[in-house]
Design goal:
Oligomer: heterodimer
Largest sheet of chain B: 7 strands, mixed
Largest sheet of chain A: 6 strands, mixed
Strand content of chain B: over 45%
Largest interface: A-B, 27 and 31 residues
Distance between the termini of chain A: 41 Å
Radius of gyration of chain A: 14 Å
Number of strands of chain A: 11
Order of helices and strands of chain B: EEEEEEEEEEE
Structural class of chain A: mainly beta
Shape of chain A: globular
Number of helices of chain B: 0
Structural class of chain B: mainly beta
């Protein structure tokens, strides 16, 4: 079965630096992979989606890469700010049943940006 | 406002009781999902639905039931058969390009 691995340890970085989070998966490459932000006690919020034929996707200070050879996605936040502190979840589509995709989520990496 | 509304935000249940979590959306999305989130674990899929009157079991459906009588609504019932129901429950819809839109969640605690 498909598995996702995210670094379960919290990542602390200094304000202004680039944060890099890793998402590894074990089996077949999904058609696309997504990143979400989750604040404590809140629902996840969609950030970026990258397709298997895309190497890189950008949105403002966010950048996602997708390496199907390494079975890995990297999520970067440049010029990080304390407001970026949150848990970031990686998700990939896993199977298409009855006209609907199923998604599998990683456990998330907690990022803390220090002022 | 467009979005997904989950209620109640907090819910307490006594052992042996069934409880129902509400999920309503006005995004006009077809697919809806229920996930459970526990500390240190990823979101786990309970049930999902593509269209009205149709739904499929996810990875951890035992002890849960759902209905999809209207496109806008996808309530989840946590039955007494669910042995460890204390968790954070999240409802989501799927957008037109594959992204998921989540509600604010319902936290269920068994007393």
């Amino acid at each position: 079965s498909q598995k996702i691995e995210q670094n379960s340890e919290a990542l602390n970085i200094q304000e202004g630096k680039t944060a890099t989070l890793t998402c590894n998966y074990t089996n077949y490459s999904p058609a696309y992979l997504q990143w979400y932000r989750q604040d404590p006690g809140r629902g996840p919020v969609f950030l970026l989606l990258i397709r298997e034929n895309e190497k890189e996707k950008r949105k403002e200070r966010l950048k996602v890469t997708f390496d199907t050879t390494l079975k890995q996605s990297l999520f970067h936040i440049t010029a990080s700010q304390p407001a970026d502190s949150a848990t970031y979840l990686c998700a990939l589509e896993w199977g298409f049943t009855s006209g609907t995709y199923k998604y599998i989520f990683g456990t998330g990496t907690r990022l803390k940006v220090l002022a | 406002d467009g979005g997904i509304t989950q209620s109640p935000k907090y819910l307490f249940r006594k052992e042996g009781q069934n409880v129902t979590l509400s999920c309503e959306q006005n995004l006009n999305h077809d697919a809806m999902y229920w996930y459970r989130q526990d500390p240190g674990q990823g979101l786990r899929l309970i049930y999902y639905s593509q269209i009205v009157n149709d739904f499929q079991k996810g990875d951890i459906a035992e002890g849960y039931s759902v209905s999809r009588e209207k496109k806008e609504s996808f309530p989840l019932t946590v039955t007494s058969a669910q042995k460890n129901p204390t968790a954070f429950y999240l409802c989501a819809t799927e957008g037109y390009t594959g992204e998921l839109f989540f509600g604010e969640g319902s936290r269920l605690t068994v007393l």
